[in-house]
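Shipment paperwork, digital attachment
Item: protein structure file
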Amino acid sequence: MSKEMSKEMSKEEFIVSADDAGNRLDKYLRFKVEGLNQGTIEKYLRKGDIRVGGAKQKSSYRLQEGEVVQISGFLRNIAKAPAPKKKSTLTADERKHIRSLVIDEGEDYWILNKPPGLAVQGGSKTTNHVDRLLPGLVEEGEPIPKLVHRLDKDTSGVLLIAKTGKAAQALGKEFANKNVEKTYWALVVGLPDLSEGRIDMPLAKLGDVDGEKVQVDYDEGQRAVTYYRVIEALGNKLSWLELLPSTGRTHQLRVHCTEALKTPIVGDGKYGGAGAFPFGRVPMHLHARGLSFTAPSGKKVSVIAPLPPHMMKTWNEFGLELDASSG
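Attachment content:
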């Protein structure tokens, strides 16, 4: 078999999930294949070793849900080279910190309770993030854990981590096929008109800000669906909501609470403005409470994450009883 034929047959494919729809292709590739840098991405996009649905695309291409991203197998080997350097940079305190966040572990996964304020991935102005800390979960020489999905920096709660690249692919398909149930809790300003319901409001990312902010867009937006119910209300001033997203658009819950329900999440100044701070400046009150999925081993997993300290403080101050929730 020729080198060209071998190269062509060695392909790796990713199905774009609702969580990743609307993201730039280059950003998506860096998330999926650890160690790929921008120069490598640009080079092999031009050569056709990275394609979307069999076609060449530019790095700035915005992905659609359900599209298949194909990469030549040798690219993962190229990307592996710098990985060991990542492990040696962690301090003992950083390794202790990331391990302290683990709330569940299985044969092929860890589940973290991510604190608010800690980004999941890095950026030009973000050097401390979960992805950088993941080598701290393992010993030297073991496979580096992989992110499976993401949470906003200011959102706390359940974050699923794969122990191997193979497990990450299997778990990623579970998300793409909508086989993962995600439950969020939020404290919002005001009271929705209906105590429970379904929000179907499309969202689009603004310009080239690469996910910094989204807006409602009925013409070109990606479909975004959220189910909600009021767990407890404090008159018409504050409401404790359970949110069940069936899609995973960037900032979906934040925009749906603000624009569809007219009840901004407490602490979400980006979308709620000054109205999101009815009792002073506080961190955002949005928490990924639960996650249910099937692990690659076949095990059915259901886990909940305790509220972060700032939300627990608010719950106590306003007399919100955790027993009021069925979860």
